Structures are given as structure tokens and as C-alpha cells.
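Input.
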Amino acid sequence: MGKRKKHPRQIPSSAKQKNRRDDPPPTAMRVQQTPESNQESQHATNEHGPFMKPFIGLYRILFDGRSAAWTAIFTAVITWYTIQLTYISDLANRNNVAAQRPFVYLAQQINGSKLIDKGAVTGMRFHLRLENSGNTPATNVWGRSTLQVRSERLTEGFDFPDGDTSSPSPTILGPRGYGEQMLDVPLNDFFQVVQKKQFLYIWGWVMYSDTLASTPFHLTEFCFELTGVAPSIDTTSLPPTETFDVSDPKIGYNFTFNPCAVSHHCVDESCPDYAALVAKHPASS
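Output.
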């Protein structure tokens, strides 16, 4: 007896439709959020949304589509800041030059000594002290000093001529250093000044350079009047009609000089004859 041929079991089409699951089309696929993620997203929106909204609006008003304008503004700000830094640097450099530069002037304290020839006093010698109060050397130091005894006081408009027309070579005056110049007056003229019958003046000028920068020449002009002469001995015991003998070689003197009442005190370009004196300086050519 032969074997029966097995046929596959036929499943009704209705059952197939019932058991088959319809797969959603690709366009219908979406990620399902859990309740927890929905709560976090809503919390973030509630927390940051109202806070950031004004800033977002401000950004759109000020920056959105305005990059060229802001670039120009920032460039202008940087340019202005650079100019300010340059000005501050230049100001600091000028202040440093002003603090370190040499400054040469004639000291008001002028001492004197007697000129003696063969035991007799023939005149007085005044020692002028040129001082450099700066912290750097003064170079090309060059100038003139004049002593004059006059029967009248100086008045405005006096031209202060140079008594010495020689042309000494320029020299150097170190920082905080000094130099001396001597001017003589005959005994008879000095006696007239002591008797207040005449007036003794010392005036002049000094020109110099500094070593800090390529600055122009510096100039100091001065004028002093001898306003007091006192002997170094006690004269209170002398009769009222008798004065000390200026020709006595044993007597010393103390002198008082004060700035002249007329205008001859200036520095640099404030001096009216600055350009003319610069033209005469040996180092100006």
C-alpha cells in the first residue's frame, strides 16, 4: 500500500488578513517621546523661553543684517583707542624729557672777592655760578655775562648789550654740575655803588642743548642788581659819620643780589631774541 501524499495546509485568506500586521509607510514613522522627555522639554521652554526672548529680540534689532555697520563702529572705536594710546605714550615721553632734561641758569647767590695788587685793593671780582639742575648733561653750553655800573637804574626797553664780544668755544656742563665765570669791577666804581651813588647790574644769557631728543636749543636769560653790600666786620662801633674802608684788604664783604625790575628773565622760545641768538651759536650751522 503506497504512502499518501501530504499537501500543505491551506490557510483561509480571511485568516491571513486577520493575522497580518500592516507596517506603516516610511513617511509615517516618528519617534515617540516618553512622558518624562515631554515634561523636560516643557520645563526648558517655560524656564528659558521667557528669559531669552528679550535678548533674541534685541539681537535681531541690533545685529541681524547689520554686520557691516558694526564692523565700521568697532573699527572707529579701535582707531580712537589707538590714538589715545599714542597720545598717552607721547605725553609720558614728553614728561620724561621734561623731568630728565638739563636746565642751566645763573644762581642768585653771587660771591665776590677783592683784587689786590702789591698789597692794595684795586677792585672787586664777582664769581658767577652757572648751575645745571637737570639729571642729564647740557651740551654746547655757550653764552655771555656782562657787568655794568650805571648812574641810573635800568628801565623798560633796555636792550642788554653784550659787554664781551669774544667767542669762546661751547662746553659741557654735567648733570647737577656747575661752572664759574668771573667779572671784575674797579675799586672806585665799587665804592660808588657802596655809597648808593651808582647801580651795579649783571645780565646775560646762556644757550645749550640736551641729549634726550632732537630738540632745539635751550636758552636762559637773566639780570640781577646788586642791592646790598655788608662788611664781614662789626660796624656798630663806628661813628655815624664814618663808614668802613672798602680799600682795606682785611675786610670781607657779603653781597645781596636781586632780580632786575625790568623784564630780562625768560627761557627758550619765550625770549624775544631767541631766534637771533640761535643764529649766532657756533653749533647752529
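The beta strands are 104-106, 111-117, 120-132, 138-150, 171-173, 178-186, 199-209, 218-231, 253-259, 266-267.
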